[in-house]
Amino acid sequence: MNVGVDLGGTKIYTVAIDSRGEIVGEAKAKTPVKGGPMAVVDAICSTVGALARPPELSAVGVGAPGAVDFSTGEVRRAPNLPGWMEPFPLGPVLSEALDGTPVWVDNDVNVGTLAEHRLGAAAGQPDVLGLFVGTGVGGALLLDGRIRRGPTGFAGEIGHMVVSPGGRRCGCGGRGHLEAYAGRAGMERRARQMADRGTDTALVEVARAKRMTSSVFARALAAKDSVASMLVDRAVETLGLAIASAAVILDVPLVVVGGGLADRLGATFVERIGTAALAQMPSGQGEALTLVPGDLKDRGGALGAALLCELEGAAPLAEPHVAVMARSRR
Amino acid sequence: MNVGVDLGGTKIYTVAIDSRGEIVGEAKAKTPVKGGPMAVVDAICSTVGALARPPELSAVGVGAPGAVDFSTGEVRRAPNLPGWMEPFPLGPVLSEALDGTPVWVDNDVNVGTLAEHRLGAAAGQPDVLGLFVGTGVGGALLLDGRIRRGPTGFAGEIGHMVVSPGGRRCGCGGRGHLEAYAGRAGMERRARQMADRGTDTALVEVARAKRMTSSVFARALAAKDSVASMLVDRAVETLGLAIASAAVILDVPLVVVGGGLADRLGATFVERIGTAALAQMPSGQGEALTLVPGDLKDRGGALGAALLCELEGAAPLAEPHVAVMARSRR
To answer: Which of chain B's residues have a Cβ under 8 Å away from the Cβ of A236?
Structure first.
């Protein structure tokens, strides 16, 4: 049985799937806030163990938030995982902890897009841009039916395409990147800035000192809050711009839009982005582009992680001595 | 013997290559200005025939300016070829005219990039963005060692990425596309506009009623003409922007810059574009990006076309009855 793990900043969601990709079991845990990567490994093991153990457990896939070296299973950078300060060989260490069960690790947006390609809104389409609009803006490329990771593993990072030259500062240090305009965190920063400068907005009133969640944006938008409208308009416009440029250079006819903010704002949001993208494309080419909301919502990451095991056909990563060496380095 | 044809708007340049990719013969002809596609076929045949004939002639590759369906050999759109008003099955018709010799046809930027990958500045690199700055701005993608054409055949069209939202009108009808800022034709339009509005510039004085060639730009730049400097600065900046966004989403570490204008402006131009690109990328990622001038200059297109024959391994395109049907449709 294959098991897929969606390793998120706040929770771990794990599913077991059958040969048709149907979920036959699920388990959840909070992502440990203390203990760093080894505590995360233990938490993943407990969710996996609740579903299957070797020899019934044949393989485990993990989708991790951050920069992953798929070929070695190393998570090189994961700013959203507590205490994950330096590269960690999650694949080998997890495999050892699971008695040598083969483990694959990939970026969470890659596995989410893989799931939409196999089981969701992009089923049967070999060329897909996966776009995940949540706290940040993530992207993944499926070209000719295969995830493109690229030599550095960063392929698909649409969130760092430039949409406003010299514009807002992005979390990565760059300027005018898509994520600064269309990610929930960037929108929240901007809303709080505007409130600090005296602009009234329901966004700050509803969220107060808490995180300005996707629901807060949805409610403020429904109440016709002008700051929320302006921020979402700008997100739509910049998402359209980046998608147009990406679609032109990649020649991908289908974009699947998922992620917390997009799921919450719904099909209208996705339609508006599609209209914005089309307006920027060469005449005759935009018509070939379709945007669809993701089908799989919260389950996509874990499903896609489980699919990694069967689709990628790479040799299992774990070599026990590698795992031991890696652990002893900590 | 394999023969490669660079079909340009003004001339046809044809080479025969040996198994090491060395040029062992070349032939030239003017691109016929009358007679449309069939006259072009005749002209290509005469250059090919001057180098080899069946059975010594084993295959022919053609690089054509415009939208090409590689799988069928059809040139769907070629605005720079005289009288080429509608789609034309160049591959099948040329194959028939060459007594059934297998023919492959691809976009000229694709074959130019292929040549740089096999014999030039990108030798040995599996992931390459080819950028050709000439009358327009063309691009091609080599991913994992293979040309990506995409489902519509437009993959790599970096010239139509948006670099200035809502900005200058592009030849394709869109706004703010790279080609409007960095293509020679777009720069010429802008220079003449400025001159019409009263700004003095050596560009218009040197070019007069003739085309503002790459040499005109190079001379005006050397003479520190302020309009030429401004236009080239803007070209550098927008090329950097588009390359940064393309490199981020594709994860390509190498960009080969060729084309008439880039060849004429030389290594400094390419270096400046590299600096501009780096400034737009996420910290830690720009350092992985290298820009190099193309090695093969004017010979790249024909060489790459000849390489098509051996690299692509597709079945020969020509089926005599297809060619006949296509011809009778005209």
So the answer is: none
Nearest by Cα to A217 from A269, A168, A273, A264:
A264
| A128 reaches B (C-beta below 8 A) | no
CB B173 to CB A143 under 8 A? no
**Neighbouring residues of B313: CB distance < 8 A, sequence distance ≥ 6:** none
Do A136 and A277 have their domain in common?
yes
* The pLDDT value given to residue A89: 97
Domain count, chain A: 2
Among candidate residues A86, A96, A90, A58, the one with its CA nearest the CA of residue A73? A90
Does the interface predicted TM-score (ipTM) exceed 0.85? yes
Q: Do A288 and B170 touch (CB under 8 A)?
A: no
pLDDT given at position B140: 98
Q: Which H or E element spans position B53?
A: none
Q: Taking CA atoms, what residue in A is nearest to B171?
A: A282
For A13, A163, B133, B186, B190, the CA distances from B182, given in Å and listed in that order, are 48, 18, 7, 7, 11
Please give the model's pTM, rounded to 2 decimal places: 0.91
Q: In which domain, by residue range, is A102 found?
A: 2-110+300-329
- Tell me what percent of the residues of chain B surpass a pLDDT of 70: 94
* CA pair distance B195, B230, nearest whole angstrom: 13
Beta pairing, strands A67-69 & B254-258 = unpaired
pLDDT at B312: 54
Preferred mutation among B158, B234, B250 to probe A, highest tally of A CBs within 10 A = B250
Q: Which residue of A has its CA nearest to B288?
A: A152
Residue B118, in any domain of the structure: no
Nearest CA in chain B to A280: B174
Q: Which residues fall within 8 angstroms of residue A11, CB to CB, at 6 or more apart?
A: A28, A29, A30, A31
Q: Pick A280's closest partner by Cβ from B162, B244, B253.
A: B162
Residue with tokens 């030389």: B266
Helix (H), strand (E) at residue A213: none
Phi and psi angles of residue B228, each rounded to the nearest 5 degrees, phi first: -60, -45
d(CA A316, CA A309): 9
In a domain, B116, yes or no: no
Q: Please check whether residue A166 touches B, CB under 8 A.
A: no
